[in-house]
């Protein structure tokens, strides 16, 4: 499961204004026209997908509910996925 909050560098308590601001920042950093790094396009798409989900109230509620359920159903798998995602970003 993708962590849309991590893609934008936000906490799950972020407001819509926080989401918009974070998306604009990530988009300006990772836009393929501005950043020639190989992973820039993928990070830009991840930020766009995160924004699409989190900026829509209905989609965000469904995402948050599913995220909460995953944390409760399989905490070890969820922790592993979070750590792998984190270490892949800093590597």
From TrEMBL:
Q: Which InterPro entries match?
A: DjlA_DnaK_co-chaperone, DnaJ_domain, DnaJ_domain_CS, J_dom_sf
Where the record annotates domain J, the positions are 3-67
CDD domains associated with the record: DnaJ (cd06257)
Transmembrane ranges, per UniProt, are none
Q: Could you tell me which PANTHER family the record lists for this protein?
A: CO-CHAPERONE PROTEIN DJLA
State what protein this is by name.
Chaperone protein DnaJ
Organismal lineage: Bacteria, Pseudomonadati, Pseudomonadota, Betaproteobacteria, Burkholderiales
């Amino acid at each position: 499961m993708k962590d849309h909050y991590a893609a934008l560098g936000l906490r799950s308590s972020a407001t819509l204004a926080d989401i918009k601001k974070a998306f604009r920042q990530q988009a300006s950093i990772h836009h393929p026209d501005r950043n020639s790094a190989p992973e820039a396009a993928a990070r830009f798409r991840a930020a766009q997908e995160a924004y699409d989900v989190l900026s829509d109230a209905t989609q965000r509620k469904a995402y948050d509910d599913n995220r909460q359920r995953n944390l409760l159903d399989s905490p070890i798998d969820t922790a592993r996925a979070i750590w792998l995602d984190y270490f892949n970003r800093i590597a």
